[in-house]
Amino acid sequence: MSELGRYRLGLVFVTASALAWSTAGFFTRLIHLDSWTIQVWRGLFGGSGILLFIILREGRDTFRSFLRMEWPGWCFTLISVTGTLCFITSLGLTSVAHVAIIYATVPFLAAALAWLAMRERPSLSAVAAGCGALAGVGVMVGLGGEGSMSGDALAFAMTAAMAGMMVIARHARGIAVLQAACLSSLFSGLVSLPFAFHLWVGGPELFNLALFALVNSAIGTVLFALGSRLLPAIETGLIGSLDAPLAPVWVWLAFGEIPGPATLLGGSIVFGAVFAHILISAQGNLQAAGPVRQVKPTRGRYSTSGTHGPFEPPPCPMGERPGIRTPTLPL
């Protein structure tokens, strides 16, 4: 496949993953069960789906790929379990719009954690955008009436967990994200098992639970893992952030859950700050990278014109510089 073809395929994969992740609020409104029961079945079906893809990818090395996970990978997994439990529970206690808008502040919270843990100084644009995003959340939570403080607090906890996962992924390069996502799904289901009220469900609800897990968890995770290898990091982040504004749209179309004026105002402030920061960062990265040199393909061991397997990382597309980290997986 040509470089342009890989780039277009990456666009399709990452966009499809954002669409899949944006359905979480829709399914939690569709399935009339307690959040613990939903999490049990979501974890079981979602973890099994991701595991099936890992088996197809790794073959006989599947078990060894999990054994190669070192302590950063296990920390990543445990934090992901905590964030996942907070995420599903928050969707049942507050509006989908509140959860989506609070989650959109995750890049700025990650920058704050990176400064505290790694003394990594954030850029001026990140600080300014972070203050704007927090102001937008304050408007939404303080003036809005359709959410709840407990649900918003769990959404903040989920966002903090996601920020912690980003910092771990940046500090410890090479974490097996798919393996961690698989274990996170399975562990979150096991942790929820003792608290589930209606574990044995009928056929229609079980079908919706399986669809929720496979679409939102398994397919979304796999598509993002494949697509993020084919796109520059900044485009991956920009396209991947589409799940936040899309999530309230599906709930509004299906169930008539309309965000209030304060939520719309606060959300506009948050998303404006996020997209402004992304665009400013993209411009800064392009200026710092300088012009892209065209390398003439050569033959041999380090040839850039060779073929690649279906799951092997291709060369950096569209002039992207190696070493730029792609975003971690949303919960």
Pick out its properties:
331 residues, mainly alpha
Question: Would you mind describing this structure in some detail?
Answer:
With 331 residues, this protein is mainly alpha-helical. The protein has one domain. The protein has 14 helices and no strands. The protein has helices at residues 3-21, 24-30, 35-58, 62-67, 71-93, 96-103, 106-118, 124-143, 149-171, 177-192, 203-227, 233-240, 243-255, 261-289. Helix 5 (71-93) crosses helix 10. It is globular and about 45 Å long. It starts with a helix and ends in a 42-residue tail after the last helix. Mean pLDDT is 79; it is low at 298-327.
Major sheet attributes: none
Residues in helix, %: over 70%
Query: How much is the average pLDDT?
Result: 79
Number of helices: 14
Rg, alpha carbons:
20 Å
Kindly name the structural category. mainly alpha
* H-E order: HHHHHHHHHHHHHH
> pLDDT below 50 for ≥5 consecutive residues: which ranges?
298-327
Global morphology: globular
Number of E-state strands: 0
Determine the strand fraction and express it as a percent band: under 5%
Q: Termini separation (Å)?
A: 31 Å
Number of individual domains: 1
